[in-house]
């Protein structure tokens, strides 16, 4: 034994704690129900929303933040929420199931409110894209209001914290009012730019079955930590409530930081004082009083005040303060009624006495293809000769990535955890196995759009991790242009569609030292060359451009992914993800030339 003492938790088992938590929530709130086979909760009256064509709002993320997110399901807030394991993003399949439950045949559409963490952004993004591919109207609002970071460089971006709950309320009120999806998204996105959150911890939290997530001395507190127990921006000596509140709000509004919230004098704001899980009511009320007093001393008018448990980090002792700049629209949204139990004390309906067994709503997944939850319409098909060439190209991709496993792992040791090659090899091995024999292929090589969807399932379910999610997003989006055509220009459009999806949900851009650098260089070159050269010649130039771009990542400053947290002077080799792109592109070219 390591000597680390495991935390004491009132659970039956670590493996079932999330499922039993959701069962308890539904058992004590008759307006909620579970989706069978998924960690998803939806409104019990969801059918009436769908039939009325009302915009439905969903959210979710890792568990351990209760009452977020399922506690905010109710009239005037969320229509559904999906839960992952503790502090872990939920899988795309469950997210898609939630979207289907509240979005299938719903003319109003679905808005997903997502916290700005890489896993959430990728998995929710993939599910949204797949829902759109099925004909469900859907969009996503990413919340990243964390003001703790002192610089925008070398990070995965501002984290989504307790302010996400305010966006749930705003979006839900707009939907209740009957606003169209586009208006809900516009106002919600605008609201995310008008708020800030900073957290303060006195003790760490501990996952079920594990010890403390970090260590704090008895006379220390941590400023600016996230909701998963990740480190903050400053560790300091214990302060009084008055001084601690001043420290939090001064940091939040410090114009010298790139993530600060501007609060002009005379501004009208909403203030949310959030209990991170283990703070006493006595302390919370003192903090609330000090926060209102200090904001008013800054010349700010606190017009809306919320104090309680809104988004926790298990049993962490600490608080977070969220400030939202208000206008008349946002005030009306915050004041609109809601039945969500997490926003107010849950009220149990009269006449319902047996809450031991939660309601269960059965959802039938449509269009399940292999291990994927995607229902993709038939697309344009290839001639037998071209289908054979696609088969050969896919086979070459698999073999090339398998052969490159050790090389990619070695490159990844500098910037990640040394598993890039193994991740790609897992997908490559399954690709080769599913591809089968040329005379009876196991993948739909005659229909590129369906083939791309099948490959996206391999990336999601077999590769796993961020790489799997990124490639699954890329392939899912690329499948759409290939439905209407399979000419060279359609492949160029597919390549660009995949890149656009990866940029949107992954958060990286060309120049950030990622797989996007060779992809973007290849797509740009291929499109330009097609106007004057034959498709094979254009693709040859594209592969050469990709190789040059991948090599150029050696001298780039990492601004996305794990490498963004590594010191620049340690990054002396090309990005492994970028090199992997060149490897499979060369494999394709070899079979086309």
From TrEMBL:
The active site is at 228 (tele-hemiaminal-histidine intermediate). InterPro entries: DhaK_ATP (IPR012734), DhaK_dom (IPR004006), DhaL_dom (IPR004007), DhaL_dom_sf (IPR036117), Dihydroxyacetone_Kinase (IPR050861). Keywords: ATP-binding, Cobalt, Kinase, Nucleotide-binding, Transferase. Residues 13-343 form the DhaK domain. It comes from the Eukaryota. One of its GO terms (cellular component) is cytosol. Pathway: Polyol metabolism; glycerol fermentation; glycerone phosphate from glycerol (oxidative route): step 2/2. Residues 388-590 form the DhaL domain. Its EC number is 2.7.1.28, 2.7.1.29, 4.6.1.15. Residues 366-383 have a biased composition (Polar residues). PROSITE patterns: DHAK, DHAL. One of its GO terms (molecular function) is triokinase activity. GO terms for biological process: glycerol catabolic process. Substrate binds at residues 62-65, 115, 120. Homodimer. Interacts with IFIH1 (via the CARD domains), the interaction is inhibited by viral infection. Belongs to the dihydroxyacetone kinase (DAK) family. This is Triokinase/FMN cyclase. It comes from Littorina saxatilis.
């Amino acid at each position: 034994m390591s000597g680390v003492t495991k935390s004491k938790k009132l659970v039956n088992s670590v493996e079932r704690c999330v499922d039993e938590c959701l069962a308890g929530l539904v058992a004590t709130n008759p307006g909620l129900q579970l989706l069978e086979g998924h960690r998803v909760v939806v409104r019990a009256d969801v059918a009436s929303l769908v039939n009325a064509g009302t915009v439905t709002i969903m959210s979710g993320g890792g568990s351990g933040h209760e009452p977020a997110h399922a506690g905010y399901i109710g009239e005037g807030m969320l229509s559904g929420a999906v839960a992952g394991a503790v502090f872990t993003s939920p899988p795309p399949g469950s997210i898609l199931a939630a979207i289907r439950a509240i979005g299938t045949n719903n003319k109003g559409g679905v808005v997903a409110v997502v916290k700005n963490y890489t896993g959430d952004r990728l998995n929710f993004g993939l599910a949204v894209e797949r829902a759109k591919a099925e004909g469900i109207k859907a969009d996503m609002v990413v919340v990243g209001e964390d003001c703790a970071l002192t610089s925008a460089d070398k990070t995965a971006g501002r984290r989504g914290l307790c302010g996400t709950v305010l966006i749930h309320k705003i979006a839900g009120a707009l939907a209740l009012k009957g606003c169209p999806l586009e208006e809900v998204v516009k106002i919600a996105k605008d609201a995310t730019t008008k708020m800030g959150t900073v957290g303060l911890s006195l003790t760490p939290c501990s996952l079920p079955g594990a010890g403390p997530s970090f260590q704090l001395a008895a006379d220390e507190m941590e400023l600016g930590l996230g909701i998963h127990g990740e480190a903050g921006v400053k560790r300091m000596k214990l302060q009084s409530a008055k001084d601690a509140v001043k420290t939090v709000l001064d940091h939040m509004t410090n114009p010298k930081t790139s993530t600060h919230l501007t609060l002009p004098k005379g501004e009208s704001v909403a203030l949310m004082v959030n209990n991170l899980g283990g703070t006493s009511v006595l302390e919370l009320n003192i903090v609330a009083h000090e926060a209102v007093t200090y904001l008013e001393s800054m010349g700010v008018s606190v017009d809306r005040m919320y104090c309680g448990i809104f988004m926790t980090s298990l049993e962490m002792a600490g608080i977070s303060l969220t400030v939202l700049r208000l206008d008349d629209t946002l005030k009306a949204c915050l004041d609109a009624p809601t039945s969500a139990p997490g926003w107010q004390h849950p009220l149990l309906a009269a006449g319902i006495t047996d809450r031991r067994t939660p309601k269960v709503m059965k959802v039938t997944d449509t269009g399940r293809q292999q291990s994927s939850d995607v229902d993709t319409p038939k697309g344009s098909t290839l001639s037998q000769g071209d289908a054979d060439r696609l088969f050969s190209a896919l086979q070459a991709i698999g073999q090339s990535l398998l052969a490159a496993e050790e090389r990619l792992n070695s490159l990844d040791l500098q910037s990640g955890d040394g598993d890039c090659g193994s991740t790609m090899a897992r997908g490559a091995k399954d690709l080769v196995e599913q591809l089968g024999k040329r005379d009876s292929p196991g993948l739909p090589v005659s229909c590129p759009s369906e083939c791309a969807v099948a490959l996206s399932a391999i990336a999601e379910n077999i590769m796993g991790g961020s790489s799997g999610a990124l490639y699954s997003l890329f392939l899912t989006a690329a499948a759409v242009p290939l439905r209407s055509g399979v000419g060279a220009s359609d492949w160029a459009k597919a390549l660009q569609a995949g890149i656009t999806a990866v940029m949107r949900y992954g958060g990286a851009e060309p120049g950030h030292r990622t797989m996007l650098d060779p992809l973007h260089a290849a797509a740009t070159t291929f499109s330009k060359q097609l106007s004057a050269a034959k498709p094979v010649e254009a693709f040859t130039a594209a592969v050469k451009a990709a190789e040059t771009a991948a090599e150029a990542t050696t001298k780039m400053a990492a601004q996305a992914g794990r490498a963004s947290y590594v010191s620049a002077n340690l990054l002396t080799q090309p990005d492994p993800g970028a090199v992997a792109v060149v490897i499979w592109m060369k494999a394709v070219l070899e079979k086309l030339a």
